[in-house]
Amino acid sequence: MTNKECQWGGEERGILIVLSGPSGVGKGTVCSALRSMSKDLVYSVSATTRLPREGEIDGVNYFFKTREQFLSMIDNEELLEWAEYVGNYYGTPKAFVEQTLASGKDIILEIEVQGALKVKEKFPEGVFIFLLPPSIDELQNRITNRGTESEETIRKRMTAAVEEISLSEHYDYIIVNDKVEAACNRIRSIMVAEHCKKERYLPKIKKWIEEVL
Amino acid sequence: MTNKECQWGGEERGILIVLSGPSGVGKGTVCSALRSMSKDLVYSVSATTRLPREGEIDGVNYFFKTREQFLSMIDNEELLEWAEYVGNYYGTPKAFVEQTLASGKDIILEIEVQGALKVKEKFPEGVFIFLLPPSIDELQNRITNRGTESEETIRKRMTAAVEEISLSEHYDYIIVNDKVEAACNRIRSIMVAEHCKKERYLPKIKKWIEEVL
Predict the structure, then answer these.
(1) Which of A93, A96, B17, B137 has the highest Cβ tally under 10 A?
(2) What ipTM describes this predicted complex?
(3) In whole angstroms, what is the distance from residue A14 CA to residue B118 CA?
């Protein structure tokens, strides 16, 4: 489905897909489905200072780091973004993303809305996709159905979701998550389209024209 | 495959797809295959002063015009582009494109490289796709196989093709026409992706946020 392996070869470098959206929209479900549909798609592995849980493998589930190691990664700008959550650090190692892209593979990063915008600052050439719930009612349902929270909690979550949705203007594409498979197909189409962008071909075309003329 | 019929409704207006590429690349074949794959896709009908051939229907194959009518369309800026070829005028009526887009349908215009760039001047919001041959050898084969032309003619055509390919920098996407079905699938992916562009959703999202907050 891509322009791979042709003389004009626009495919040398992979594409970073950043998938985000408001809390409760189903980013994780879409991302998992996408990975099982697209076997070549690499998943961005986060670094964390949290201890490994049983069965978790270093370099697969997370890159497990000591606090000192993580702080040194921050200082050396080795992270595309990072955040502290319940006493632990989490972040996206730049090197893993860079190595994957250089090998010609696409990589997907599933991340909350604020984190995605931090990634955009350091990696504007990424493709930023914002997942929307099919409707506001549906968003409210998803937020409510998570548990038996108070009305106050639900209202707060709703306000947070609205604030998150307002940040969608900083993304490249907006996908409505009406059905997981349909959302995945749209993302796969975006990936194909991004691989067909003229910028990926012009250097080789220009070189070829210089040789021919 | 699109975000159709959702509350965020980015789908009100169709998209103009302009398909171009060097002479002999197979634009017509790809465009026909695409139309039979995508039944909802409307084909842009050209206006011409040439007389209808047997079986040709006005408004289907062409909009047949008198010379006076055509010149008046030029004067009134009713054409996205026009050209004279072997004593007859040919052009793309703006109204037909506009009406199709307003009805929410996508429309495809198959056109040679120079014509596409004229359309871009008047309709920059169109999606401009440049079709490339899979290789230079293949391009030469296609040019040569058309008939039994002299080497001089073939060389001239090749130079023309190189000049046409150099104009690919003004397009949005580049598609390699290695296999017709694969090329069509890439174009369909581009159409899905273009329908997911954030610009199509932001007005409704902003309106909704103003209502909610």
Answers:
(1) B17
(2) 0.90
(3) 33
